[in-house]
Amino acid sequence: MQKHYRNIGLQNILLITKEFPEEAPGGRELLNKLNLKVLENIFGPNLKTFFLPKTNVRTYLGMFNAFRGHIDGININSIQSCMTIIKEKKIDLVFVDGSNLGTIVKVGKNLYPNVKFITFFHNAEYYFFKGLWKKNLSLKAFFLMGISYLVEKNAVSWSDRIIALNQRDALDIQILYGCKNVAIYPMSLEDKLGTLQPLLSPQQHDEYALFVGGFFYANYHGIRWFVKEVVPLINIKIIIVGRGFESVRSELEIQDQVTVVGSVDDLSQYYLNAKFVVAPIFDGSGMKTKTAEALMYGKKIIGTDEAFTGYEKHIAEVGWLCNSPKEFAIAIEEATKSIESYFDPLLREIYCTNYSIEAAEKKMLKILSQDT
Fold first, then answer.
1. Are residues 255 and 320 in contact, defined by beta-carbon separation less than 8 angstroms?
2. CA distance readout (Å), 306 to 59, 118, 193, 284
3. For 169-196, what is each residue's pLDDT tens digit?
4. Domain that holds residue 306
5. DSSP single-letter state for residue 247
6. Got the DSSP string for 251-304?
7. Are 131 and 215 found together in one domain?
8. Does 203 map to a domain?
């Protein structure tokens, strides 16, 4: 697709993003990597990158600087480095990968008003941390909620275009910050199925439903609710896979009913052998990576409104929408009886058409075209 980028009036683009490990541990990092790959595929060597180091606020001085927008690797040195790249490399457009980086947008747009700035919202971070604060009333969550508002306000005020993952987030951004120019760029994932052969029947005797997700508040509260309220009503084993969940194994495991695997190096075999996927998520923002991941493996999904946010047009084909224990129990019974093949090519096609890297490139190119 590189041959098309000059047609949209752009020569050089700078991506500002966070450092991430080679093996991305969570949905946010996966999306960081995907944005990098998509822009590399479009712009090739004309894409410049600046990676912000991972930092944590640990001191009073750090807290003071955070209220100046110096978070997640943003400081005087990193800001200066970005401004130097913009000037020396004759950057036409800066793609800022995260609404938490709004301070760079403000500085950059003031110094280089003719350069276009696009900010990508992984979440409406203010609402994300507001949800976390409401769950545990922690001072840290309240602090992060306030910081998020300040940096996101800068991002919205100084960007030429805002990108959100779904219509819900776009509306939240518009209401909170008075932003009118929001593009929708749905969650996409690099294909992990590859040459693996999907299963039409399980490779083990015991059928199971799969829950996948890293150990953070929305996943933890959701699956804890599910184990307490839904598991007593169903007759299929549940397997929980996700980084950090081994820390609550003793709380969640139920003999012959719930198994907590925790961290794994490769999710593919757990997906391939699962009869279907459950997604009891009630809080959060953005789009759920694991919903797209389940589609990638051709798996039916039984999930909540939150789990299907951004995927609404596909719910009828993808699975069952549930928000109460009774609804989950009925849907799981129906799924257990009705699902015969462990791989649904229709679901795989939904992923390929809407949430693959190829689909993301087309959507990104369209958004960039609208900004030139």
1. no
2. 35, 26, 25, 7
3. 999 999 999 887 799 999 898 898 876 6
4. 208-353
5. G
6. HH-BTTTEEEEE--S--HHHHHH-SEEEE---S-SS--HHHHHHHHTT--EEE-
7. no
8. no
